[in-house]
Design brief:
Strand content: under 5%
Radius of gyration: 19 Å
Number of helices: 4
Oligomer: single chain
Number of strands: 0
Mean pLDDT: 90
Length: 80
């Protein structure tokens, strides 16, 4: 969990979201997403973020499975 969420008990206010977006070390992509979300309806932004999270999670799992399969293939070839 990101450092700025893990330590919090409540979700950030709009001002706190702006402060998070300006933190050193945050990616440009995440900064832009946070600032863009502030301009949107919060219900729609949260729904879109949920879809994005699910899609990215699936992509991660797919890439990890592909990498594992390549490792298994390489190990099998090395064992021949």
């Amino acid at each position: 969990m990101p450092f700025f969420i893990a330590r919090r008990k409540a979700m950030p206010s709009d001002q706190e979201m702006r402060e998070i977006a300006e933190k050193q070390g945050i990616s440009v992509w995440l900064r832009d997403a946070l600032l863009s979300a502030l301009e949107r309806d919060p219900v729609e932004a949260a729904a879109d973020a949920g879809v994005l999270s699910a899609v990215l999670d699936h992509r991660l799992k797919t890439k990890a499975a592909e990498a594992k399969a390549l490792e298994v293939i390489a190990a099998a070839k090395a064992g021949l």
